Amino acid sequence: MGIFSKFKSGFKRGADALQGALSRVSGRAILDEEDLMVLEEALFAGDFGVESTEEIISEIRDAYQKNKSLRGEQINNLARDVLRKILAGSEGIILNESQNNPEVICLIGVNGSGKTTTCAKLGIRFKKEGSVPLLAACDTFRAAATEQLLNWADRLDLQIVSGHHGSDSAAVAYDAYSACESRGCDRLLIDTAGRLHVKDNLMDELYKLKRVLQKRNPTAPHHSWLVIDGSTGSNVVEQARVFHEKFGLTGLVVTKLDGTSKGGALVSIYRKMKLPIYFIGLGEGADDLQPFSIEYYLDSIFPSAEIEANVN
Ligand code: GDP
């Protein structure tokens, strides 16, 4: 499946929910307040957030005042333009040839957000691109997490360093860094323990992991990505604030955007956090991780007839 097709099928539920409302308002000779309300509700239900929803609606209202017969296509374009501005700067870009060797990427976030799965997905992605990644199973807090990552590594034929359940996660990170150097791996992908951001001692442990890595390499970690479950979207700002204070975040991975009708979550998350989105999770499979693309995203959520014709 091509990358755009993956976006399109991943965001299908979100797009369907919006298109239902759009088809009601598009092509109406008279666009009334009730129509706009239907659209506003659909955007709001899709988790675009109050500000973005209002900006889109006001853009449509203004355009309608100038041109009394807006077509669905034009409404899609207006929404796309507003969102394109809001999302400017949101694409995280990771170069294939890194300056850092090994390049250290830490995945952090609350339990269940998708860190372990993302770690494996990144591993296979980088491997396919010609890197030699090594996974570090530093979630020693949850026995199943290490087992889960070992299974992925086995299935995908990826190198991995793990520790015993309950062992010091910083020590595993240290060993993994050494293994990277001795085996000539160029990317170290660290899966950390999911913790409640309100638990201070657990946050301190995360900080220790960072300090230990910095003993090996003062510039590490080169990326610290907060993994966020895009289907819940709840209290992400508070989560991010605490993780940022303790660890310093450089970007985001937003997971589970497939199967949710809240395709707008990505917009509200970026709007609140202003951290680049490096990857998005669009399924549970190894290759269901895509670099974030504003255009693919907008075209999936607000498809144009021309794009539909090209894809189908
Ligand atoms: P962790 O606790 O943060 O390490 O989370 P896991 O990686 O164990 O993921 C929790 C659950 O979410 C698992 O059942 C994963 O298969 C699932 N998951 C992770 N990413 C995605 C995604 O992008 N889409 C879907 N549908 N499920 C996902």
Largest sheet: 8 strands, mixed
Rg computed from alpha carbons, rounded to a whole number of angstroms: 21 Å
Poorly predicted runs of 5 or more residues: 307-312
Counting DSSP E segments of at least 2 residues, the number of strands comes to 8
Helix/strand-derived category reads alpha/beta
Portion of residues within helices: 40-55%
Brief sketch in words of this structure:
The chain has 312 residues and is α/β, with parallel strands linked by helices. It has helices at 3-10, 12-25, 33-45, 50-66, 72-86, 115-128, 143-156, 169-183, 200-216, 236-247, 265-273, 294-301, 305-311, and strands at 103-108, 133-138, 159-162, 187-192, 223-229, 251-255, 277-281, 289-291.
Polypeptide structure, described:
The chain is an alpha/beta fold. It has 13 helices and 8 strands. It has helices spanning 3-10, 12-25, 33-45, 50-66, 72-86, 115-128, 143-156, 169-183, 200-216, 236-247, 265-273, 294-301, 305-311; strands at 103-108, 133-138, 159-162, 187-192, 223-229, 251-255, 277-281, 289-291. The chain has an 8-stranded mixed beta sheet with strand order 3-2-4-1-5-6-7-8, sandwiched between helices. A hairpin with a 7-residue loop joins β7 and β8. α3 (33-45) packs antiparallel against α4 and α6 (115-128) packs parallel to α7 (143-156). The longest helix has 17 residues, at 50-66. The chain is elongated and about 70 Å long. The structure holds guanosine-5'-diphosphate.
